[in-house]
Design goal:
It is a single chain. The protein is of the alpha+beta class and 123 residues long. The protein contains four helices and four strands, in the order βααββααβ. It is globular.
Length: 123
């Protein structure tokens, strides 16, 4: 059974604040990479491309966590809570809106093997 959690966190900066938001989000990367269960944590910004004309918020975090508990613990870190309080929740923050979603790579009907019943442990 895959326990990985995939998080897509999209951000809509207030007008003229795109660079400030991108840099603030980049500032979160080093400490997230220190978390043992962080498999991938990269902030990206949308660019023009003739083969990808979709619409989205212009700044997106792509995250992969080893499991749900690790992701939820990450979300409770002081640095993360303070980021959202300062940049999104505060009236004078740089972010107009954010959309954070988590995903799994497992089909709903996946018949995951029970490693405990087999006497095996997950890595």
């Amino acid at each position: 059974m895959s326990q990985k959690i995939y998080c897509i966190a999209s951000f809509k900066p207030k007008p003229g604040r795109e660079d400030a938001v991108f840099r603030a989000l980049q500032g979160l990367e080093p400490n997230a990479h220190r978390e043992d269960a962080c498999l991938h944590y990269t902030v990206t910004r949308q660019i023009d491309n003739p083969f990808a004309q979709g619409t989205s918020y212009p700044i997106v975090f792509h995250e992969v966590w080893a499991n749900r508990a690790a992701f939820e613990a990450h979300c409770q870190r002081r640095e993360i809570r303070e980021f959202f309080a300062t940049h999104l929740e505060a009236e004078d923050g740089d972010i107009e809106d954010a959309n954070v979603c988590v995903y799994t790579d497992e089909p709903a009907d996946f018949d995951a093997p029970d490693l405990g019943a087999a006497g095996l442990k997950e890595p």
